[in-house]
Specification:
about 160 residues, alpha+beta, single chain, Mago nashi protein
């Protein structure tokens, strides 16, 4: 009941604390979760749009739409539940939900967001592109999801997106 109340509070935006650590540390991908459990997205007019989604059923989707009419990249894959549990454990260990932007943006800089909807961590974190690449804690969170992004894309994800 407490977990349900925390999830409801998170969904209606009543408490950011309720959105964090709303599950037990031993139950990383809750059997009750369906749909998207991890989402990475960024859109920046000069570079394009990149989206990665991992679903509770193990389905992965990746899409990159570069600006300027360059060829799109899209792919999908499926992973075993254990791979999502491993990712959930890693994101929780890294305290990805505790990340906060520490600066103002630079003109034309994208602001990627990472949404985590796993029983140990539930949040959306938005940082400036440079923060995801240069702040060690943020870079570690992005590096944790990159192997699944690559698997879904079928090739390495581009740098700087």
């Amino acid at each position: 009941m407490v977990v349900l109340l925390r999830l409801v509070a998170c969904c209606v935006g009543l408490s950011s604390v309720a959105c964090r650590n709303s599950g037990s540390a031993n139950s990383h991908v809750d059997a009750g979760f369906t749909g998207t459990v991890v989402r990475w997205s960024v859109s920046q007019p000069l570079f394009g749009t990149e989206t990665f989604v991992a679903n509770a059923d193990g389905g992965l989707r990746y899409r990159l739409e570069p600006a300027g009419g360059k060829p799109k990249t899209a792919g999908s894959a499926t992973v075993r539940p254990q791979e999502l549990k491993t990712l959930a454990r890693k994101l929780a260990e890294l305290d990805c939900c505790d990340l906060e932007s520490g600066r103002s943006g630079i003109p034309d800089e994208g602001k990627p967001s990472l949404t985590i909807r796993l029983s140990a961590s539930n949040c959306t974190v938005s940082l400036w592109d440079g923060e995801w690449r240069k702040v060690p804690a943020a870079k570690a969170c992005l590096e944790a999801i990159k192997p699944l992004m690559v698997k879904a894309a079928g090739k390495p994800a581009p740098q700087g997106m």
